[in-house]
Each structure stands twice: as C-alpha cells, then as structure tokens.
Recover the amino acids of this structure.
C-alpha cells in the first residue's frame, strides 16, 4: 500500500493538524528516544467504565501552521518558552477505548498504512494491551482527517473491524460526500477529500449518522464541536457521576489551545468557529471539572482544565500504578 508522502506545500497545510512536541535544540522538553519499547497503552476507570488509551504512533511536521492569526514571533516565543521547538512538531495520537457494560467503543481508527510511516500502530497496540479487535462493538469517528479515519480499511479495502457498528456525524459525512467536492476544493486539499471518501465508502461499513447529543450506547454520547471541521464531534462519557470528553481535534495542542484559546491553526476549516467551540469547551470543562482526552496531547493525553484568568491550563492526570 502506498504511503502518503506530502509535498512541502502539503506539509505546510498539514502542519497544524499536530501539536508542537518535536523539540530539537539546546533546551528540550522531549527526552531522547528509548533504547527499547515503551508501553503504548494506559488504563484507568471512570465510574464503572473501564478506559484504555491506545497509541497509533506519532508524526512530525513543521510548526508553521500553528496560531496563524497571531504574530509568528509571538507563537515562536511561546513555543520556546515551553521548551518546544519553533520549527518542528511531534504529535501523539491517543485513541480512547471505552468498555461499558457489553459495549466496547473505540474513538477513531487512526491512519493505517496510508499516511506517515510512523503511524498505523493501533492494531499492534491493541494486541499489546490484550484487547481482541473482534471484541470492539462500536467505532465512533470524530472527523474524517487522515490520522482519524484512514485506518478504517485493511490492505484489501475491507473494514478493519468488520463486526462493529460505525458512527459519524451527519454534517461531517455529508460534507465529504457532497458531489464533486474533489474538484471544488483547493488542489492541496484534494488528497484529503479522496482519502475521506474512500474511507467513508469502505467495504463492510454501514454508517449510523449522528446529530449533536445522540447516544452511541447508554452513557456515551456525541457533542457537536465544529470548527476544525464543520462536522467535528467530540465523545462524552458519563458514569458514576463523573464525565470525560474525548476532544478529537477540537483542541489539538496541550499548551497553545489552553493558554491562547483565541489562536487557531491553518488546518482549521473555520478559525473563528474553532475558537468559539474551544472557549465553550474550556469553560464547561473547567467549571464542571470534566476530564478530557486530547488526541494530540502528550501520551496518554488525559487530564483536566484549570482556569487561569482569561486563559486556561491543561493539568495532566496523576498516574496511578
């Protein structure tokens, strides 16, 4: 299967899909690579629900697409202040798996082998975590960008989880499937469209199309969080009087998205709507003490939102052994 190899222009277009976590240079928050393998799954609970974070790998891109409505010098200064490279980005890919009653719900399916060669690790990390892929009953797609949906099909173009039910927002589905979209968009976006359409049309997948607030299974619902894409959904789990939101890409950076919620990225379909959605989420999660999972946050990407004046901070959850 051919691996996606973007041109420089396409890379610049993709840059903001990931947070800036690649850190060359003298001051580094990123540690040196391990000599062996690190665990690529993380388990915790919310009420009676059993949760696992699974990595699909990582990818690195330039940071030039971050905070495009701010002065570039301010963005670079912020990154350097937080020990982050002003030039390159290292993006984690954190998938939430929810075991609740008889349901096993996976949020997004990763990149498969059609994007960068450093991603597509979801299936092997499911195995490492002791999760039988055949046990997955429901798959929810937050949006149809490559790192979230291109892994939906195997090398034979068949569904990677053939026995699961598949869910996507109706607005998201209808956007990508509109007639002749590939000839309407900018040429740099055509591969996005082709990949999304091929993934949505995957053999063996019948889509359940969702509206804001619809339940996937009892206690698991979706929330419309548009902006990054116009039909973007986040996934909300409620159990035992507590809540957790899988953010998808509604917040893509564990520092910028919180401390500068008014900045948006060039990959965001509607910058102003992205900001409005983000502010709503941040305010709600801080006020109601709702836990979050950031798809592109540093693994495992689980934490809380703390208000800091007019801005916020991401507070990583305390690991328990």
């Amino acid at each position: 299967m051919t691996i996606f190899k973007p041109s420089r222009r396409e890379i610049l277009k993709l840059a903001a899909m990931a947070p800036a976590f690649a850190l060359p240079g003298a001051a580094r928050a990123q540690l040196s690579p391990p000599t062996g393998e690190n665990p690529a799954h993380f388990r915790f609970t919310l009420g009676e629900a059993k949760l696992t974070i699974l990595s699909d790998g990582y990818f690195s891109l330039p940071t030039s697409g971050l905070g495009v409505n701010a002065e570039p010098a301010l963005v670079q200064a912020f990154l350097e202040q937080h020990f982050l490279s002003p030039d390159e980005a290292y993006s984690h890919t954190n998938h939430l798996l929810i075991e609740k009653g008889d349901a096993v719900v996976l949020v997004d399916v990763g990149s498969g082998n059609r994007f960068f060669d450093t991603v597509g690790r979801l299936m092997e990390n499911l195995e490492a975590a002791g999760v039988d892929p055949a046990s997955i009953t429901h798959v929810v797609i937050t949006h149809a960008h490559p790192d979230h949906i291109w892994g939906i099909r195997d090398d034979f173009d068949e569904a990677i989880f053939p026995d699961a039910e598949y869910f996507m927002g109706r607005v998201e589905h209808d956007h990508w499937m509109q007639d002749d979209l590939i000839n309407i968009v900018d040429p740099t976006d055509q591969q996005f469209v082709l990949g999304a359409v091929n993934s949505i049309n995957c053999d063996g997948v019948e889509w359940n199309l969702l509206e804001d607030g619809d339940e996937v299974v009892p206690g698991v619902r979706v929330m419309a969080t548009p902006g990054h894409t116009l039909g973007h959904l986040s996934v909300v789990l409620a159990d035992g009087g507590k809540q957790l939101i899988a953010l998808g890409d509604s917040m893509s950076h564990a520092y910028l998205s919180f401390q500068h919620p008014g900045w948006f990225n060039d990959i965001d379909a509607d910058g102003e709507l992205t900001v409005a959605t983000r502010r709503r989420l941040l305010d709600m999660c801080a006020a109601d003490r709702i836990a979050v999972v950031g798809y592109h946050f540093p693994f495992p990407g689980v934490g809380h939102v703390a208000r800091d004046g007019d801005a916020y901070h991401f507070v990583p959850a305390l690991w328990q052994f």
Confidence is low (pLDDT under 50) at residues 1-28. Residues 131 and 219 are 21 Å apart (CA to CA). The helical segments are 8-14, 72-81, 122-128, 146-149, 170-176, 190-200, 256-259, 271-288.
